[in-house]
Design brief:
The chain is built from 13 helices and 13 strands. By secondary structure, the protein is α/β, with parallel strands linked by helices. The protein folds into two domains: 176 residues, 3-Layer(aba) Sandwich (Rossmann fold); 152 residues, Glycogen Phosphorylase B (Rossmann fold, 3-Layer(aba) Sandwich), CATH 3.40.50.2000. The chain has a seven-stranded parallel sheet with strand order 3-2-1-4-5-6-7, sandwiched between helices. A six-stranded parallel sheet has the order 10-9-8-11-12-13, sandwiched between helices.
């Protein structure tokens, strides 16, 4: 019997990694043959709808406004009258509300969590509400461990990762006598992204040994002030927000991620898809699924000297085979991801 499936999300910017993953999994594919229809319900609206226009016509898209009461009314309407067999929820608030509607009105849909953040570190995630879901899609092995630590049984969890395809173009190292590093993401001096850790590492490197390219917006003024205060003797270039930085980057030695926590760091995976190795903190969750000895280095969170050691390895001409770097992402290929996603849903009864 063909199924009706709903994917329900909180407010989306239209430019983030979650939208990229949704667009990938919702492209017309062989698994759509088993679906009667699929609805994408975006609560709280969106800023950029270009990605919505690229979805196939079989995907029915619905929006709600920023008004909290109206959001809950829209969600309730679709849960009551959508006739869905499976409801995939991208926030714990949506999981909880879906469970309340199901209980009060005696509906029979399955509730599936699909959280794109570290469960114990993100303020918008309430771990207690995850127990209201029947099944869980996990985007990293770290999130699997977090779910199991909550007492959720392994048979209720499906590890699907995120989709990242190997690119046709290989970005080669710079050849100008210095190491070019890139950070791609939200600019935060402290907190989740913790760029202070990277800046502290720069102070311990030989002067003018590194050029750091930063792509993103956020606390740029605070970061510049910190660099000036600590007399960082490296070149830092601020590129601001760029829609697709990988099309702008011509040469690069490595991408750096100094996060305190992640979900599945797409920028790190994208870097490797172009053959660029990564240097990342071994934070919960995600980097350990992506980085291995053939495509980069992992260092302990907070270990600035460990980060310095890894950057020095590049300065001392530790070479990676850039074709091999790309090939390490094989299990994240789009076709394999879609197979894991839809096969996981088919198994959920």
């Amino acid at each position: 019997m063909k199924r009706k499936v709903a994917i329900i999300t909180p407010k989306l910017s239209g430019n983030g990694g979650t939208e990229t993953v949704l667009k990938t999994v919702l492209q017309e594919n062989e698994y759509f043959e088993n679906l009667n229809r699929i609805d994408l319900v975006i609560l709280g609206g969106h800023k950029n709808n270009q990605w919505i226009t690229e979805l196939p016509t079989k995907v029915k898209v619905h929006f709600a406004t920023d008004n909290q009461i109206l959001r809950m009314l829209v969600l309730s309407y679709w849960l009551l009258f959508g006739g869905f067999e499976q409801v995939i929820c991208l926030s714990t608030t949506i999981i909880h509300w879906s469970a309340l509607i199901r209980k009060v009105f005696r509906k029979h849909y399955l509730i599936v969590s699909w959280i794109h953040f570290s469960i114990f570190n993100e303020k918008t995630v309430d771990p207690d509400k995850l127990h209201y879901a029947d099944y869980h899609l996990a985007i990293s092995s770290g999130i699997v461990k977090q779910l199991e630590s909550l007492g959720i049984k392994a048979e209720r969890i499906r590890l699907i990762f995120n989709p990242v395809d190997k690119k046709k173009r290989v970005i080669m190292p710079a050849d100008d006598g210095v190491i070019h590093l890139a950070y791609v993401g939200r600019v935060m001096l402290k907190g989740q992204k913790d760029l202070q850790e990277l800046f502290d590492a720069l102070t311990l490197l030989p002067p003018q040994a590194v050029v750091l390219h930063i792509y993103g917006t956020g606390q740029i003024a605070e970061c510049k002030a910190y660099l000036a205060k600590h007399h960082v003797k490296q070149t830092v270039i601020w590129h601001g927000w760029v829609k697709d930085p990988w099309q702008e980057i011509r040469t690069l030695d490595a991408t750096v991620l100094t996060s305190q926590y992640e979900g599945f760091p797409m920028a790190l995976a994208e870097s490797i898809s172009y053959g660029v190795p990564g240097i990342a903190s071994d934070c919960p969750t995600g980097p350990a699924d992506i980085i291995d000895s053939e495509n980069g280095f992992l260092y302990r969170v907070g270990d600035v000297k460990g980060l310095v050691t890894d950057i020095l390895k590049l300065i001392k001409q530790v070479h990676f085979n850039h074709v091999t770097v790309q090939q390490t992402l094989g299990k994240y290929a789009t076709d394999k991801f879609c197979q894991r996603f839809w096969a996981s849903l088919a198994e959920m009864k």
